[in-house]
Design brief:
single chain, transcription regulation, three-stranded antiparallel sheet, Arc Repressor Mutant, subunit A, HTH_HxlR, mainly alpha, 6 helices, DNA binding
C-alpha cells in the first residue's frame, strides 16, 4: 500500500473526515446508532447515491465506521461507528457549534443536522 504524504497532523484529520458529507455521516452514526444506506440517504439530502457510497467506503477504509452485512434476503447492510470514529465526537460537536455561531446572511439552513439545529445564536 502506498503511503499518503501529509505535512502536518491537521492534514491527517482533514484527509479522513474531509469530504462532501463525511462529518454528517459520522455525526449521524454517533448520535443515532447503526444506520442503513437508505436511512443515511434520506437524512443527508444534499449528496448523490454515488457520492454517499464513496464516502462510506472511505470512512470504512480509514477505520472510522464499520459495515455489517446480514445474511438475509434481500441482503441488509448497516453502518456503525467504530471506537476510532467515536473519538471524533468532540471535534464534530465543536464544528457544529462553530457553524451555529458563525452562520451569516450568505447561508440558508435547509436541513439542520446538529443537535442545536442552527437555532442558537
Amino acid at each position: 500500500m502506498e503511503k499518503i504524504q501529509v505535512t502536518c497532523e491537521m492534514e491527517v484529520t482533514l484527509k479522513m473526515i474531509g469530504g462532501k458529507c463525511k462529518p454528517l455521516i459520522l455525526d449521524r452514526l454517533i448520535q443515532q446508532g447503526p444506520q442503513r444506506f437508505s436511512e443515511l440517504m434520506r437524512v443527508i439530502t444534499q449528496v448523490s447515491q454515488r457520492t454517499l457510497t464513496n464516502q462510506l467506503r472511505e470512512l470504512e477504509n480509514d477505520g472510522l465506521i464499520a459495515r455489517r452485512v446480514y445474511a438475509e434476503v434481500p441482503p441488509r447492510v448497516e453502518y456503525s461507528i467504530t471506537p476510532k470514529g467515536r473519538s471524533l465526537e468532540t471535534l464534530l460537536d465543536l464544528m457544529c457549534e462553530w457553524g451555529e455561531k458563525n452562520i451569516d446572511d450568505r447561508f440558508v439552513m435547509t436541513n439542520p443536522q446538529c443537535q442545536g439545529g442552527g437555532e442558537e445564536k
